[in-house]
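Ticket 4471: requesting a sanity check on a complex prediction with fructose -6-phosphate. Repro inputs:
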Amino acid sequence: MKVYIASEKEIAKMAAQRYVQLINTKPNAIIGGATGSTPIPLYKELAKQCKAGNVSFKNVKSFNLDEYVGLDGTHNQSYRYFMNNQLFKHIDIDINNTFVPSGIDTKNPSKYDDMIKAAGGVDLQLLGIGVDGHIGFNEPGTKFDSLTHVVKLEQNTREVNSRFFKSIDEVPTHAVTMGIKTVMNARSIILIATGKSKAKIVKEFIEGPVTTKCPASILQLHPFVEIYLDEEAASLLKK
Ligand code: F6R
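Returned structure tokens:
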């Protein structure tokens, strides 16, 4: 696990360079996307790099981590809507090559893993982290061998995410998420964490034991993980 610490702006640029390198080496790369506040500076930087002609997503495929159950892609809080507006419409990706798990058809969620496999597997998976250590929507206690599945969201996660909704009652109670095994199947992974609220969990998942109590701790066992932190998120790390 490599850990990089810099300003939020700098880490967005550094992480964007990983995409530029990957896609320029492998133009039909498969990338894994995340939503939330954390990836927004990175997505802005990717749009900038694409506009400048430094990278083209024309042949890239994208698979997102998760989606709220019950929201279709036109809902302004759905993760499909987020991805279209924060990234896809600002780069030259073919929208037909972008995938987000369905929040409506949730009968056989692990078929998403089959789709990823059929596409060739994820080359670079982006992750944020929840204050309880969740990655995707894999809450504490999720089995490390889980594939894409439906989860009941922790009350705390719903509270944190209610900032995007009118009230907590509107936050869906369930989500469909890539499983921990799905995430670990990616050939390389970038996790970004910024802000003071992430400092405690950042210390725990990097320096603590590998345990299902902290889902992100499994990343210690992946051979190609890069962690990008701002000073605040890194503030409790030993070194
Ligand atoms: C989003 C996702 C979540 C977020 C996490 C952090 O697709 O899978 O695991 O990465 O909840 O969210 P932010 O970035 O809003 O702090």
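Notes from triage: The first helix runs from residue 8 to 25. Leaving this open until the requester confirms.
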